[in-house]
Task: structure prediction
Amino acid sequence: MLDQTEQRRDMPAPAPLDFHIQDLRAALHAETSADFRSPLFWRVMVFGGTMAGTLCLILLLSGFFAQNGMHWLELVLLVIIGATFAWIALNVASVAAAVMRRARGNGLVQNQSTDAPALTTALLVPIYNESPKDVFGNAAAMLADISRLHSDNRFSLFILSDSRGEEIAEQEWRAFQWLRSVCPENVGLHYRRRAENVDKKTGNLAQWIRGWGAGYDAMLVLDADSLMSGRAIIELTEALRRDSSAGLIQSFPSLIGAESFYGRVQQFSSATYGWLLAEGLALWTENEANYWGHNAIIRTRAFAGSAGLPYLKTWRGREQMILSHDFVEAGLLRRAGWAVRFLPVRGSFEETPATLVDYIIRDRRWCQGNMQHLKLLRTKGFHPVSRLHLFFGALGYLMSPAWLFLLVVWSALGLTDMTPEGYFSEQNPLYPLWPEMNTSQAVSFLLFMYGILLLPKLVATTMIMSVRRIRRRFGGSRALLGGVLLEVVASVLYAPIMMIQQSMAVARILLGRPVTWAPQRRTAKRFALRSLLRFHWIETVLGILLAVGILGGGISVWLSPIAISLAFSVPLSALSGLNISQLRFKSGRLNTPQSLHVPPIWARAQEARSEVEKQLKQAPVAAAE
Result:
């Protein structure tokens, strides 16, 4: 007989495990006695370098602003410029740390045990109105890959459905029946669909823990678009097995499968530069790393005992679930004494939104969840680095309104053309006396800022170019350098649009207008011109006004790239969905090692997806539940 909260299931015998909801206002006693080493050198290097660079910039600019006396508006500008620069400088310092670590040639030391018992691991795939073809195709590829490799750890895969609607539920059940017929004997396979998706993904996983968590030592959480090779799954499992102090180990997923222009830009950026930033992040976080909600392995009892999330109260007194739960769960695990670590295993993949519109829609959800983190900074017992993760999660979105404020001030005051005699004189005493910035100063300042922004990309590209074998995996020097140039241009064009969209998302949240969390579209869709105009009309109007100001001489010509981006946001958005994977010019394809040399697990997933699609097109056959 089925549980009243479930519809259609094929599950193992119940193995209940208590799932403890945490009190964020009370400190928690550590569950482990592990003595963690702090990466003090790397943290001093990264944060010391960030603060030193930011302080130098502020001192230089304060000397410039103080030529005619400092005004409160200039002080505000200094603070915002300092904050935005520090955000950039932190990434540069993290990359510098990764380069230094590579030069030294030694890795992180973890608590290793060679005689630890094998783990029983559950691969959990929570889904909500996803394409059954893609989900079950990926699952088939992972199960087959695990079965090919020798491991004394045992694995079972669970499809945990929260899908709404009987049609998609029927497709899932039929896809599961097919998957069960091809599932290898040495791995387990199960499916469960909840009648109500209470608390979304966190509630889905919590119900699994309460029903079957005691039967599994570890749970490897995957997203609907996650794909991991058998070797990567076993490597993560072995890392958790050997490290008794670890509560969670997060892999660095590579982007894969992108064919649209915007998707390829994201995929190329991740493959070319993202790996170096990730290594730097792993270096200074060490035992206080973060959790990104998928492609990570978690010690089940540690999570059940220390990471249950309570509801938050809004300023209106309403209860609200924690949306960006992963950052918080990582902090709670570390609060309980468990290590949270990054591990750069190969063979961990995820897909990315195909168009700019789809990316923005997902980004709005993340913005709403990450802004909640500001309320959680006072949580009792959090490690300082865990608080930093929460703060940075929110700051990443608050930077957009900060950049927009700088843009508005620069546009309104014509910074590069301003003279003391024209502003803040006795005839106009309500404004501060603004100093003159000549053309060479403006150029120097912009070159410095762009140089800092591009430095991590230049360093990573140089490192790739210096190794022939790796360079050839990108298609050779010409393809790599052409791709870097195209990615930089695309980033410059799309960044102002994202600045406006993120600023609007922050404004909606502050005004109490929550975002609807809908399923993510995984494939590119061609949007009608009317839809794109409706979506980007604010950016378009702002861009036209900015362009008019520049042509009229009232606004600095150095803002032209931003004006072009905003004014042409509609055609740029349309361009984002263009399929470029088959372009004649190789440099324009933005190829990566994953697109040129298809990983075997991705090829198997594509074959399995085709098989699932064939099964779903056939007439349904009644099956006993």
Observations:
- Residues 415-436 have pLDDT under 50 and may be disordered.
- The chain is about 55% helix and 10% strand.
